[in-house]
Design a protein that fits this description.
mainly beta; three-stranded antiparallel beta sheet; globular
Length: 110
């Protein structure tokens, strides 16, 4: 299977688009706002339904693991593994699928 990486920029929110399979786009937003207003409250990756097995890890700027998931239909609500609300800031993610790895940054704004 051939993987293709592309970068897409949209008006308000830049997003990264990855083709993990040539017929499937994966959309990884780079900002989310878990402030309870119902808009952008969850960090989620779109298009994972046709993806091979994957995993996602999110770390704070000190390298502390904040979130980890290896299941389909995942989302992060901005809560740490210890159950505390993560503060505003930039977080680093590692998204693995098959033998491929995509890394990047997520900005959390409350």
């Amino acid at each position: 299977t051939t993987e293709i990486y592309t970068l897409s920029l949209h008006d308000a929110l830049p997003i990264y688009t990855i083709d993990c399979l040539t017929s499937n786009n994966i959309i990884i937003p780079n900002v989310f706002t878990p402030n309870g207003d119902g808009i952008g409250d969850l960090f989620s990756i779109e298009g994972l339904d046709k993806c091979p097995p994957y995993s996602l890890k999110i770390f704070d700027r000190w390298g502390v693991l904040m979130f980890q998931n290896e299941k389909n239909n995942m989302f992060w609500d901005g809560t740490s593994l210890a159950g505390k609300k993560a503060p505003d800031g930039t977080y680093f993610y590692i998204f693995l699928f098959e033998t491929n790895k995509k890394t990047g940054f997520i900005t959390l704004l409350r």
